[in-house]
Fold:
Amino acid sequence: MSETRVSANRHTAPGGKAVARPMIGVRDLCKRFGHVEVLQDVCFDVQPSEKVTIIGPSGSGKSTLLRLLIALEEPEKGEITIEGQPFIRCDGDGHSVKRGKAFRELRGEMGMVFQQFSLFPHMTVMQNLLLAPTKVQRVSHGEAEQKALALLEKVGLKDKAHEHPEKLSGGQKQRASIARALMMEPKIMLFDEVTSALDPELIHEVLDVMQRLAAEGMTMVVVTHEMGFASKVADRVIFMDHGRVVEEGSPDQIFRAPKEKRTEAFINAVMTHI
Amino acid sequence: MGGAGPVCVFGVVVPYFEWGLAFRFSHLLLEGLKTTLLISIVVMALGLVLGIFVAAGRLSKNPYINKSVAAYIEVFRGTPALVQLVWFYYCLPIFLGISLPGFTAIVIALTLNVAAFYGEAYRSGIQALQKDQIDSADVLGLSYFQRLRYVVVPQAFRIVIPVLLSLSISLFKDTSLVSTLGIGDLMYEGRVIATETYRPIEILTSVAAMYFFIAFPVSLLTRRLELRLSRAYR
Structure:
């Protein structure tokens, strides 16, 4: 096991201090679709308030990893803990997936934003934001509306509250999606290539919102092709290829002095095309 | 001379069409139309509800439920509706050992037939939804039924309304099959009048016109809805 893989198993916060309970703990995670091994023995931790960016070529398993973290998929083997508590576990060899006792509560601690915005088109922006708090958390309509207006102001969409998604640009839809996820007050935010479907001139408005969120201390796991964002905001960068964690480290180390040849080849290829 | 032949025949035949005949028997035709509309509305209402269960069964992960419902759909979609009517009208009371009113038997047969089509329409509407929509609702914490109620059904229904309306127009016309069993719908009344008056062309054309004047506005509505929905979801 390389030194960089060993470091994945130490619980280190930004600044090098050991922390007992990571916000997200991933151990030996494996996922298969049919005969295709999409993830193989993935191990890493995310500490509270840490910003982890996952990069890698298409098909490396990055999005599948995020989907496993929030239990949209189930693993063939491995364990995920949230705040040190068992979330999902599978012993492999045909054993069924076991969910932790606090599965629902822990899942509620996470929010996710998808590549394709995924706002509900038959609802206005405000209705999109109010749906989950009022139906799931049973928050009163008035209270939820106040919170929604504050969040929409934060993401610069207060004037679009009563518009349907079809009237919004791609960047506005994505900002509304982020606000909708934040309505549930998650402790962890997962972002799955949220700028990939946007026109280049709209990307910055979404990245600005994510940077502000990062500055407020949100724990974030971000799958992205935006290397500028990764180098500026991330505390740690994980490079994946063919379903494995190849290397992880600080943005400086990964982008300027990668230890693995595959990482170096990827970074060179990506930086050449910027 | 070849072209003049049909013109001469037409010139001889046309004055002998009695297009006013339908008005003379309008009270009978309207009675028949009432029966047709009653059967159509009852079957549509029952079929739309049963179709939801058919779609749910077809989407079920339980292989027994899924395969049973698939078999039901294939049987009712793949066999003539007339044969299904004959089976339910004549054979079902014998198998059940009870006396079943004719109207009830044909409503059951037509409902089972149309529910197979409605169910497949619902299923295709649900499956047409982008997976991200359902995933988004899932990660927001909505339960299965909340996802169906607030996200899936409103969107799927918008997608399938034009299809459901088209199927309903077809059903309305297919109810004419019950006339072969002696049920007094519009087609039955038309055939009786045609037989008694020896004027099948005028009477059956008038019957066709009555079907058309009810089906056409629904068809126009379907087209308008399709246009509106395609604009809304651009």
Q: What stands out?
A: The first strand of chain A starts at residue 24 and ends at 33. DSSP finds ten helices and eleven strands in chain A.
